[in-house]
Amino acid sequence: AVNRKFHPEDTIIEVAGRKIGAGYFNVMAGPCSVENEAQIVECAERVKAAGASFLRGGAFKPRTSPYSFQGLEAEGLKLLLEAKRQTGLPIVTEIMSEKHLDLFADVDIIQLGARNMQNFMLLKELGRSNKPILLKRGLSATMEEFLMAAEYIFAGGNTNVILCERGIRTFEKLIRNNLDISAVPLVKMFSHLPIIIDPSHAAGRRDMVQPLSRAAIAAGADGLIIEAHNDPAHALCDGAQSLDLNQFDTVMKDIKRRAEFE
Ligand code: PEP
Ligand code: MN
């Protein structure tokens, strides 16, 4: 069970030679979407050099409008694997349908996005797999709903779950979502699972990424997932919240001064 009552110690998720949780802090970084080989490889090289330990990048994108860029899909996964081959960075990428599980065989961490947090069939399928899952909190999910979504994955036998707080909907319009920093201590009280923070989707603006990363570290988060792009002004998705690669380097230096890395 995800409940700490049944498992008093913090869980450490081991993936691709990295540890996540119980004080092992990791930064996952990369563009919102994989766009082409040069883009994803440059992002991978630069976020790795800055100190990130995982490459993120969406291939299947859950977009509000059906007319927006939907991701490169299977081709995007291939490009991510190519970036992994060239840099050695393990990859994290979102799945949108259980029908695609075979395509994700070489993905290191499968992301279950906020919009699918209560896609119970998908949760059950991921529960039957043995892949580490990055489970993002739904746009207006309560903590109970969030932890019960993780419980679905556990119920199928897969206990490799990392939680991610990515902001919740509030009335505030200056930011895209509102980072619920309480999620970190609440998860730590009620569960043994690691929780990381996504300051990029929480704020929707790049100038908030550093302050929210500091807040995440102060609250005791186990890591961060940050959007960084080689050319944010021309990004096909989420450019306004993406750091450019120099800005990512600067933010990483600040994070490294504040968080305890392995
Ligand atoms: C993403 O990581 O690009 C994403 C779509 O995140 P979320 O599901 O948190 O909105
Ligand atoms: Mn995004």
Which short descriptors sum up this protein?
262 residues; alpha/beta; TIM Barrel; two-stranded antiparallel ribbon; 8 helices; globular; binds phosphoenolpyruvate
Short recap of the structure:
GO terms for molecular function: 3-deoxy-7-phosphoheptulonate synthase activity; aldehyde-lyase activity. This protein is α/β, with parallel strands linked by helices.
Bound compounds, each kind once, are:
phosphoenolpyruvate, manganese (II) ion
How many independent structural domains? 1
Structural class: alpha/beta
Instruction: Tell me the Rg in angstroms.
Output: 17 Å
- Tell me the number of strands: 11
Please describe what this structure looks like.
The protein has 262 residues and is of the alpha/beta class. The chain has a single domain, classed as TIM Barrel (Alpha-Beta Barrel), CATH 3.20.20.70. The protein has helices spanning 37-50, 74-87, 120-128, 143-155, 183-190, 199-203, 209-219, 245-258, and strands at residues 13-15, 18-20, 26-30, 54-56, 91-95, 109-112, 133-136, 161-165, 195-197, 223-229, 243-244. Helix 1 (37-50) crosses helix 2 (74-87), helix 1 (37-50) packs parallel to helix 8 (245-258) and helix 3 packs across helix 4. The chain starts with 12 loop residues before the first strand and ends with a helix. The structure holds phosphoenolpyruvate and manganese (II) ion. The site of manganese (II) ion has 5 residues, from loops. Phosphoenolpyruvate (PEP) binds at residues 32, 58, 62, 113-115, 136, 166, 198, 201. Its EC number is 2.5.1.54. This is 3-deoxy-7-phosphoheptulonate synthase. One of its GO terms (molecular function) is aldehyde-lyase activity. Residues 17-253 form the DAHP synthetase I/KDSA domain.
